[in-house]
Amino acid sequence: VAALVGAGVPVVVLQAGKSRLFYEGNPVVFGGAVREVVGEAGDAQPVAVVDHAGNPVGWGTYNEASMYRVRMLWLCSIDGGFSAGDMDVGAVLARRVGAAAAVRAALGLPGEGVTDAYRLVNGEGDRLSGL
What we know:
By secondary structure, the chain is of the alpha+beta class. It is 24% helix and 24% strand. The protein has 4 helices and 6 strands. The chain has helices at 2-6, 20-23, 76-79, 89-106; strands at 11-14, 28-30, 34-38, 46-50, 56-62, 68-75. The chain has a 6-stranded mixed β-sheet. The relative contact order is 0.16.
């Protein structure tokens, strides 16, 4: 936690027992799961998320006013570890949208005589919660 805060990254600390949800892939942190925010977190700003003992869970974008306090973009259980320099929202969005487009293309979408409309991104299904 200290290294992230020292690098200017706000850190959302979860209540004890809440991190299990994110190891299983949950893409949103509800306000009630947050024990504290260390550092200054502005809306839409990337924040690190750690469990109650300070172990990294992942990172996402913050929204103080939403019941979904953090929309997770990176889960350590799926994506691996991260550092402050890895927290690039634009790069993650580009990679995930590209992967979604590749899946649709592999499915033959749009397909001549099959469909002329489809959903390019399916929010949580493409790991882009809220989109």
